[in-house]
Amino acid sequence: MSQYDTQSLHDFLFHTPEGGLRKMLIDRKHMTDVHCNLLLKIVKACNAEQFGVHLEKQDFPRIRMTPAEDKIKEKFWNDCMNTLKERGVLQPAQAQKVAA
């Protein structure tokens, strides 16, 4: 079970217009254009379940990265998760209710 609600995060990132995401996420300190490009590339390359696995393991799907993206990949997930939590987009997973 994931520590975060990655399903909702993936859905939000996948369905929100790119311009709106860029305005909300890019702060030029932790989240740059390169971070945003790579995040959107990952979201488009995976379904929600795969995205959650990559986020938890802090690894990447098989995608082609630009030299700039390759340069940031070590700190990418940490930077993104901090920014997403700060903006209120990445939420802790809700406990699953067990049917009686």
How would you describe what is shown here?
The protein is mainly α. The protein has five helices and no strands. Helix 1 packs across helix 4 and helix 3 packs across helix 5. It is globular, with a radius of gyration of 14 Å. It starts with 5 loop residues before the first helix and ends in a 14-residue tail after the last helix.
Structural class: mainly alpha
Measured distance between first and last alpha carbons: 20 Å
Order of helices and strands: HHHHH
Q: Quick one: biggest sheet?
A: none
Unreliable spans are none
Tally of extended strands? 0
Oligomer: single chain
Number of helices: 5
Strand content: under 5%
Radius of gyration using CA atoms only? 14 Å
Shape: globular
Helix content: 55-70%
Topology:
Blueprint lengths: L5 H10 L2 H8 L7 H13 L2 H10 L9 H20 L14
Helix pairs in contact: 1-4, 3-5
Q: Which characteristics define this entry?
A:
0% strand, 100 residues
